[in-house]
Amino acid sequence: MSPQNEFMNKDVLGIALRDHFKGKTSEQLITYMKLNGYDEWIEDELPLQYLFREYSDMPFIEQRALDLCRGKVLDVGCGAGSHALYLQNKEVDVTGLDQSKGAIAVCRLRGLQNRVLKQLDDYRGTKFDTLLLLMNGIGLAGRMEQLDQFFQKLKTLLAPGGQVLIDSSDIIYMYEEDEDGGFLVPDNDIYYGEVIFKMEYKGQESAPFHWLYLDFKSLQKAAGDNGFSCELVSYGEHYDYLARLSLEKE
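User: That's the sequence. What structure does it adopt?
Assistant: Structure tokens below.
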């Protein structure tokens, strides 16, 4: 299910995180995104220091999500551990989960006590009161057709009465507008928020991987189809939003 399997063959992200933590680099992580129906890559730079940010430097929806965490928390795709470390410092029982060996190593060096080096698909056994999936957490599903499998996996990790805090963005704005004020979305039966990503650092490039951006109404429907209620918590500053999911009572 995870779209990151191929990208992790070089652990480009993990290498970059370790270099930055150890002060060995002045280079940044470069991301490339290809929109559905387009051939060209959209290049962007992700400053590595952003992945080590403090609570005060986080976007509002991330702060809001951290404030809503309760009970035993699993930070899915924890990266350098900034969210998990904030919760740990608040004496929250939190575990960081990531499939990047470099990321988990950085979490250890930064003092995160509970950390697991695994893909989400392969992690099982423990139940959590809060599943935290930030920085476009829905992206881990990869494609629309994999959303059911994604939600069913989350169910296996959720304790009774638990919640899923997850964010995403509606990227319809990235497509060209037509004369009527609509958007020119490719007519190919692929959801416009399904994109291809890859990363580059110091000349090393990851394999391309699928990544999903999902508008709230589509998230709400997919969640409902899988037995979750879905509440819009707040909007961010740039087409992004935070949602809270909980299992509906049968």
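The chain has six helices and twelve strands.
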